[in-house]
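Students often ask why inverse folding is considered easier than folding. One informal answer: many sequences map to the same fold, so there is more than one right answer. In these notes we will look at a single instance of the problem. The structure comes first.
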């Protein structure tokens, strides 16, 4: 068998595997949307919570999910990008950097339930806050910061290869080069990390069970020190407690709504990133 034939065979196999993965993903999404198509009902989202006849009223949980996303990104994005800048442009190989990288890898491998228990110990008990939206956001920051730092480091390192020497040769300082040249060039890669992080924040439940709680106390919507049940936690509660007659139907609608919201957010973030790149 000659090399060209082998190449065609393995290329075909890889295409088939890729198509199978895509079809499986599409089938899963369509199944979720079909089972939860009643989420399109206005009352399912914004109506009062009710039980029976596919009751919903998941608006508070949807708001909490978006609010949790905003607070978590506001904390984790500056720290993650800063860590990426330090590791790629300022750090020198030594014991401290090796320990730092080991710590990042270790935290990245932790199950979300472990991070949730750690958050329960620190942000709920020792702090005296109780179950709060801020505690949940801090737990999610710990969970997602390693991935965001690694993506930022790789994107900044790759961008620096193209523009760093040119900027320094024209008289720019190191900080000017990083702030005005490297980070804008690396922005598409950083945005990808932010989108991945945001998707995990939307869908995370285990870490929030022990930190933000399972109640929707929306007195003072913007108060970060209140309990905040997100949509993912609400789905878990419906499927675990068994006290709601149509729990499965509500959970299906909430799951479909969650999938649609994640898709809309991802598309909006990419469109915004492209527009920012055109006008920078």
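Output (designed amino acids):
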């Amino acid at each position: 068998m000659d090399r060209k034939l082998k190449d065609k065979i393995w290329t075909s196999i890889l295409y088939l595997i890729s198509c199978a993965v895509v079809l499986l993903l599409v089938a899963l999404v369509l199944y979720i949307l079909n089972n939860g198509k009643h989420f399109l009902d206005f009352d399912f989202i914004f109506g009062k919570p009710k039980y029976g006849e596919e009751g919903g009223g998941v608006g508070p949980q949807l708001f909490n999910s978006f609010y949790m996303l905003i607070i978590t990104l506001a904390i984790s994005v500056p720290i993650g990008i800063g860590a990426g800048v330090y590791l790629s442009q300022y750090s020198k190989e030594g014991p401290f950097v090796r320990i730092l990288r080991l710590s990042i890898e270790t935290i990245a491998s932790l199950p979300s339930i472990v991070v949730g228990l750690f958050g329960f110990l620190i942000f709920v008990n020792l702090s005296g806050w109780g179950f709060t939206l801020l505690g949940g956001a801090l737990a999610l920051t710990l969970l997602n910061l390693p991935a965001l730092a690694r993506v930022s480091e790789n994107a900044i390192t790759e961008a620096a290869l193209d523009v760093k020497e040119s900027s320094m040769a024209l008289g720019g300082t190191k900080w000017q080069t990083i702030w005005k040249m490297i980070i804008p060039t690396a922005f598409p890669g950083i945005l990808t990390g932010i989108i991945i992080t945001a998707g995990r924040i939307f869908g995370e439940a285990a870490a929030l069970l022990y930190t933000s709680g399972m109640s929707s106390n929306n007195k003072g919507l913007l108060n970060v020190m209140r309990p905040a049940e997100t949509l993912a936690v609400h789905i878990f509660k419906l499927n675990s407690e068994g006290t709601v007659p149509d729990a499965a139907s509500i959970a299906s609608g909430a799951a479909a709504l969650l999938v649609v919201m994640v898709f809309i957010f991802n598309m909006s973030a990419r469109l915004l990133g492209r527009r920012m790149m055109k006008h920078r």
